[in-house]
Amino acid sequence: MANILIVDDEQSYRQLLSLVFEEQGNTIRTAMNGRQALEALEVEPADIIISDVKMPDMDGITMLRAVRETLPDIGVILMTAFASVETAREAFKLGADDFIQKPFDVEELKLIVRKTLEKQALIDENRAFKRAQRDKGSVKNIVGSSAKMNAIFQMIETVAEVQSTVLVTGESGTGKELVARAIHDMSPRGEKPFVSINCGAFTETLLESELFGYVKGAFTGANTNRKGLFEAAQGGTIFLDEIGEMSPSMQVKLLRVLQERRVRAVGAHEEVAIDARVIAATNRDLKQMTEEGTFREDLFYRVSVIPMHLPPLRDRAEDIPDLIAHFMTKFCDQTGKSLTVAPKTAQLLEKYAWHGNVRELEHTIERAVALERGTEIQPEQLPDHITNYNPERISADFELPESGVNLVAHLDNLEKTYVVEALRASGGSQTKAAELLQMPVRSLRHLLDKHNIRSLSAQMRSSD
After folding, report:
1. SS3 state at 340
2. Can you give the residue range of the structural domain that contains 190?
3. What's the pLDDT at 196?
4. Are 160 and 186 a contacting pair, CB within 8 Å?
5. Residue 354: CATH number of its domain
6. Same-domain status, 442 and 389
7. Edge to edge, what strands does the sheet with 98-101 contain?
8. Are 242 and 440 in contact (CB under 8 A)?
9. Average pLDDT by consecutive 10-residue portion of the chain (464 residues)?
10. Position 384 in a domain
11. 306: three-class secondary structure by DSSP
């Protein structure tokens, strides 16, 4: 049974159609023009609208245009006594499901309504199937059955139903983007775009134009207008990875966008309204950064409405066998190989600390599958630092002084030492030093400023 809204300025047609479709058990509402119809839809949606085209105050074509902007799934059948090819073409272009000329055969209209409802049912069924497959596939990519991962899965399901900004934190390689995509896919925005950007991979100027877009002539090389990623994600989700790497001025601009829900392209005078859910991620401690003054406190609270922390792999070691099996299946399917993992190899993989987390484990399995020529992955196919890993020996080599140690100062000095050595090894190149330290260049520059050694980079380059 359907909820049908009949829209016609002629009372006789409203009464006739009400009688015809009430007999079939449908719920009927009526309106005298398009404006009344839109007001009725605000109170309660309908399954089908049967509407005249020519009506006072607001005609059927104008009403159809407004309906399709806000309620795209409603079936709309238009009627007119003044049929023309142009009117019919415009109606179908705007998304009318069918078009019938007055006076009409009641049985023909019944058939049109039934076919429209059947088409809607198929669309709904197909959408539900795709949604279920997408949700299943999205969460399936996040492997784990430990208590910590089950808590993450529950959190994903919960936050997917709301629109609040989410901040996903965790070490590099823990799967922050996979979680962001799962939240998007399981949300009402799942059929809209998911747009991702690494904020640490762009200079400030490039990041601004990527996020907000630019107009022709805004700068050298801007030969056309280009939409930013916030506009590209309209109706969907934008994922801001490594948000902690944003410069202070970009933080101000992002804060304004999140507050006003509007963006202004570089070089433009007008703003554009945006409707994109924001999910941010970082492997840094934003709270500490706010205390140090390197990250805006107001932006921190704006992006961390719902915080989610992903545990490192070493804290959920019980998930390692499942992850090994998952990546073995993935890379064996890609290479056409049929391999298993030798027991000794499995022991080494499960014992290792995995400082690079799930990403490091994935790359290790990919390498082993590519190199193995037998039927079992042997320890020889693993990197030396995994086969030689011995946490007991590392512990035995360390001895805590009787007087204790200033851990903060010790770690601070160790951090400075690594930065200096990386600069020395790279001949003063900040880009190469950042690669050696496996961090973004922006993070390295932050450490140079923190330890007041930015001048070292130029000194080492000039000494070569």
Report:
1. strand
2. 152-309
3. 96
4. yes
5. 1.10.8.60
6. no
7. 27-31, 3-7, 48-52, 75-80, 98-101
8. yes
9. 92 94 93 94 92 92 89 88 75 86 90 90 74 60 91 92 94 94 91 93 93 92 91 96 95 96 93 95 94 95 96 94 95 95 96 93 96 95 90 61 82 88 88 88 88 82 62
10. yes
11. strand
- Number of domain units in the chain: 4
Q: How many helices (H) and strands (E) does the chain have?
A: 21, 16
End-to-end CA distance of the chain: 82
CA distance 143 to 146: 10
The burial of 231, by beta-carbon neighbours within 10 Å (0-12 exposed, 13-18 middle, 19 or more buried), is given as: buried
On whether both 299 and 321 belong to a single domain, the answer is: no
Residue 194 DSSP SS3: strand
Domain contains 400: no
Looking at residue 93, its pLDDT comes to 83
pLDDT (0 to 100) of residue 410: 82
Q: Residue 222 class from Cβ within 10 Å (0-12 exposed, 13-18 middle, 19+ buried)? A: middle
CA atoms within 13 A of residue 370's CA, in its CB half-sphere: 7
My answer on whether 254 and 164 are in the same domain is: yes
* C-alpha dist (Å) from residue 189 to 131, 156, 162, 231, 423: 11, 14, 10, 15, 45
CB atoms within 10 A of CB 93: 9
Domain identity same for 199 and 156:
yes
The whole-angstrom separation of Cα 214 and Cα 196 is 18
Residue 6, phi-psi category: left (phi > 0), alpha (psi -120 to 50), beta (remainder): beta
96 C-beta neighbours (distance < 10 Å), count: 22
Q: Which residues contact 229 (CB under 8 A, 6 or more apart)?
A: 195, 197, 210, 211, 238
Q: Are residues 107 and 166 in the same domain?
A: no
Q: Quick one: 293 and 347 in the same domain?
A: no
